[in-house]
Amino acid sequence: MANLAFKNILPKIADNNFQGHRFALWGFILFTLLMSWRAIIHMLFEQYGFHQIANFQAISGDPDPMLLIYRFFSLWGFAQLIFCIVCWIVIFRYRALIPLMYLLWLFEWAFRTFGYPLIREEIAVQGLYTYGMTPGSVGAPYILIILLVLFGLSIFKNKV
């Protein structure tokens, strides 16, 4: 018989003893690798990420507004990278916190799936600033489902 151990989200001891399913551990490593790659692209290759990947159009003006937009895009990538570094620390030293990290990722991707369409849909729908949907908005529902499954596996515990 198996159960979900919700107490593993905030364990009493934050050690390297991950008690969830092995698939959740490897899923977390792969997801953190992907999110680290995303953060580095946003931070260091902001023009490429902004136009070729995210499908945003260049905006002209005097002074050039794109320099400021690229800076904010790069800072967003840096913020993403900081969270990924925390995830890597958890992977190498504090694996008991993986369920908590999954929960934090779930908050981000749930908001991308349900929150952004409510408050920012007009940007993509109007097509004033974009050539199409960003990969993050298109893939968000699928990533959310994957994260929900992996989160469930991370707190899954076999009864002994």
Short synopsis of the structure:
Helices cover 68% and strands 4% of the residues.
Describe the structure.
The protein has helices at 22-44, 46-53, 66-93, 98-126, 135-154; strands at 2-4, 156-158. The chain is mainly alpha-helical. It has one domain (19-158). Strands 1-2 form a two-stranded antiparallel ribbon. The N and C termini lie close together (8 Å).
How are the SSEs placed, and which strands pair?
Elements: E1 2-4, H1 22-44, H2 46-53, H3 66-93, H4 98-126, H5 135-154, E2 156-158
Antiparallel strand pairs: 1-2
Helix pairs in contact: 1-2, 1-3, 1-5, 4-5
Please describe the biggest sheet, giving its number of strands, its sense, and whether it closes into a barrel: 2 strands, antiparallel
Class from secondary-structure proportions: mainly alpha
Order of helices and strands: EHHHHHE
What's the rounded overall pLDDT mean?
A: 89
Question: Helical stretch count?
Answer: 5
How many distinct domains? Answer: 1
Distance separating the two termini: 8 Å
Rg over C-alpha atoms, rounded to the nearest angstrom: 18 Å
Give the low-pLDDT segments.
Answer: none
- Widest sheet: strand order? 1-2
Residues in helix, %: 55-70%
Number of strands: 2
List keywords for this structure.
mainly alpha, 160 residues, 5 helices
